[in-house]
Amino acid sequence: MNAHRRFPTRLNLRRGRVDMTHGAGGRAMAQLIEEVFVRHFDNEMLRAMNDQAAFGVEAGRMVMATDGHVVSPLFFPGGDIGALAVHGTINDVAMAGARPLYLSVGFILEEGFPLADLERIVASMARAAFEAGVPVVTGDTKVVERGKGDGVFITTTGIGLVPEGLDISAANARPGDKVLVSGHLGDHGVAIMSSRENLEFETAVVSDSAALHGLVAAMVAEVPAIRTLRDPTRGGLAAALNEIAQSAGVGMRLDEAAIPVRAEVGAACELLGLDPLYVANEGKLVAICPAGCAESLLAAMRAHPLGADAAIIGEVVADDMGFVTMETGFGGTRIVDWLAGEQLPRIC
Amino acid sequence: MKYVDDFRRRDIAQGLAAQIAAEVDPSREYAFMEFCGGHTHAIFRYGVQDLMPANLRFVHGPGCPVCVLPIARIDNAIDLAERHGAIVCSYGDMMRVPASKKRSLIRAKAEGADIRMVYSTRDALKIARENPDREVVFFAIGFETTTPPTAVAIRQAEGLENFSVFCNHVLTPSAIQHILQSPEVREMGRVRIDGFLGPSHVSSIIGSAPYEYFAEEFQKPVVIAGFEPLDVMQSTLMLVRQVNEGRFEVENEYTRVVSREGNLKAQALVGEVFELRARFEWRGLGEVPFSALRIRERYAAFDAERRFALSESQGRDVKGCECPAILRGVKTPTDCKLFGTVCTPDNPQGSCMVSSEGSCAAYWSYGRFRIDRQRQGAREDAA
């Protein structure tokens, strides 16, 4: 790279700050792109420095997903906004059973944001993208005046290819199907809360932020008949299941005792008056499959490191009203309703 | 967590359910008012009603602090932010409670009022210290449980000239007494109450002694009950036994927390900072004598009502909203025409639909499948 020749002095990544020129389209912006973004995301398509990435695709069904990230704080136990932005979009693509191919990224930076933090975030994104094998191939940067943003907002878009023979959609759930989750619920939300300025409490819980396409690939290889996949992010498991119930025109019946929740997460929720079923996850999925395949799907999930604590938590039932109900650990029955209002703002 | 799980054990619940079923007299009805929203929440969240015999039901009481605050006081809080330019600090529960003119704290905030959600009085004090050139008002609500922290905040605020408290603390025993004195319960017999599940956290502060007067006077048993579902069931069994034996005593199921005399240190602190108001309006109950606290003269500098000379707002409940009757136990949420139609937790018209401790919200969020199933069943029977 010829950074030294094009820009007489390098960006001060230790003490420098984002200023308005970094989004103005001039030399300062070019330098930021080159010395931060291209350097970390480094790949051929990005290095071509075009306004778009060009690539060939196989014939087949493609999926596309986009996800904006405004999490506060930017760095939290088990992750940061950068890795989250990569994982979030990869997971949205993967929930169609698709193999994610490429990502794009849009940064909105606030004037005054430390370049050191920006570099840390970009490095984390690059690492997440590298580990997932899904490169960031094009991007955009804008800068807003101080006070008009909150450090950095990141939007990512991803595309992926759906393997032949899969038909995975929320609308496909049928009465009699089984409902599975890939592991403990609520880790991400509790990790974020534990690091919020006005709420700090000590916990060993770290965010579960992870790219799930590897787990999904193992699952669809074992059970191509999977009907529905969903990552229960904002609104938690409750929101994900209500969305599916509504799309498919069915109800669900869950068994509270079967739903995996870490003791620490349960305790933190108890303390804060929250319900783990409504707390966000960033590395978990819900799967719905025909009852006959449930055990083999469970075994396939448990064989993957990101599904080691997977469990069958309930079943799809016929219900015109679309209620998600749950037999409580106590022996009674209740609704698991949509989240009302806002449980916790800016969780992802 | 293990400690908590012990109070939610299914095997014990089944055992208690069998015992209650065996001991109730099948020839009579049992109606017990659970005073606190915490109990209401536990009953619905864990499905406790499902485990009860058909002739035993819970009447939901007014013990949800955000539900009983009259609209006028919320209008006042919005006024403090909008007209007086103060930073108003509120517990999260209050944010969505409807005020006059379809407003609420959260809507006023969206329109530019500086209203901030806090988790504790400490946060409010911190905001006051960080904004020395702004007035900062803590919107204090709640029963005896949240009163001591407000008292501590006022004492800690010595020397902090921009901090004050908008005091809305209310008292439990006077509210229970008021319900028992109401014509619906006393004369008309429209509301049947055979006993009370007494407050748990409130009683940890005030003790169990304050309930002795009205248990005797009104001949109604009271069992101080914890908020865990097994506490509710054990206390219900204790109430069934008192009713069967014709007793009306104050019993304490929640002995792991509540003593007869309560937390004397907290009581002393509250007594030092607050004094009784001659009357206070409760949503649903109307004016209840000696049912709330105000800040003593000695701490007048921290009293937002004195500092800002708040005007009396004429806040009115939404037309058709049955919150007042529901809070008295006279009606159930399903008796309200707005319930589940225009009034849902996403678009609450009345206070009982806002807080997770409100009975409308509990009905809607945890139990409405029963209502719909019943209606569906009725339709099918008719057809």
Descriptive overview:
The complex is a heterodimer of chains A (348) and B (383). With 348 residues, chain A is an alpha+beta fold. Chain A has 10 helices and 13 strands. The longest helix of chain A has 18 residues, at 115-132. The mean pLDDT of chain B is 89. In chain B, the strands form 4 sheets. Chain B has a 5-stranded parallel sheet with strand order 2-1-7-8-9, sandwiched between helices. Chain B has 16 helices and 13 strands. Chain B is of the alpha/beta class. Chain B has 3 domains: 2-63 and 172-252, Rossmann fold (3-Layer(aba) Sandwich), CATH 3.40.50.11750; 71-171 and 262-308, 3-Layer(aba) Sandwich (Rossmann fold); 323-382, no CATH class. Chain B is globular and about 65 Å long. In chain B, helix 2 (10-23) packs parallel to helix 12 and helix 7 crosses helix 13. The A-B interface holds A 198-199, 257, 263-264, 266-267, 270, 273, 321, 323, 325, 327-335, 337-338, 340-341 and B 1-2, 4, 8, 10, 13-14, 17, 44-51, 96, 118-119, 123, 229, 344-346, 356, 361, 364-369, 372.
What's the structural blueprint in terms of helices and strands?
The complex is a heterodimer of chains A (348) and B (383).
Chain A (H helix, E strand, L loop, with lengths): L2 H4 L20 H15 L2 H4 L13 E9 L5 E2 L2 E2 H14 L4 E12 L4 H18 L3 E9 L7 E11 L15 E4 L5 H8 L18 H10 L5 E3 L5 H13 L2 E5 L7 H10 L13 E4 L4 H9 L8 E7 L6 E4 L5 E3 L13
Parallel strand pairs in A: 4-5, 9-12
Antiparallel strand pairs in A: 1-6, 2-3, 4-6, 7-10, 7-11, 8-10, 9-11, 12-13
Helix pairs in contact in A: 2-5, 4-5, 7-10
Chain B lengths: L1 H4 L4 H14 L6 E7 H9 L10 E8 L7 H12 L4 E5 L13 H6 L4 E4 L2 H10 L5 E7 L4 H10 L6 E7 L2 H10 L1 H4 L8 E4 L2 H6 L5 H7 L3 E3 L4 H17 L4 E3 L11 H10 E3 L2 E4 L3 E4 L3 E3 L8 H5 L14 H5 L31 H24 L1
Parallel strand pairs in B: 1-2, 1-7, 3-4, 3-5, 5-6, 7-8, 8-9
Antiparallel strand pairs in B: 10-13, 11-12
Helix pairs in contact in B: 2-12, 3-16, 7-13
Distance separating the two termini of chain B: 50 Å
CATH class group of the largest domain in chain A = Alpha Beta
Kindly provide the radius of gyration of chain B, computed on alpha-carbon positions and rounded to a whole number of angstroms: 21 Å
Q: How would a textbook summarize the main sheet of chain A?
A: 7 strands, mixed
Fold-level CATH name of the largest domain in chain B: Rossmann fold
Could you give the count of β-strands of chain A?
13
Give Rg of chain A in angstroms: 21 Å
Name the strands of the widest sheet of chain A in spatial order: 8-10-7-11-9-12-13
- Biggest interface, and residues per chain? A-B, 25 and 33 residues
Determine the CATH topology of the largest domain in chain A.
Phosphoribosyl-aminoimidazole Synthetase, Chain A, domain 2
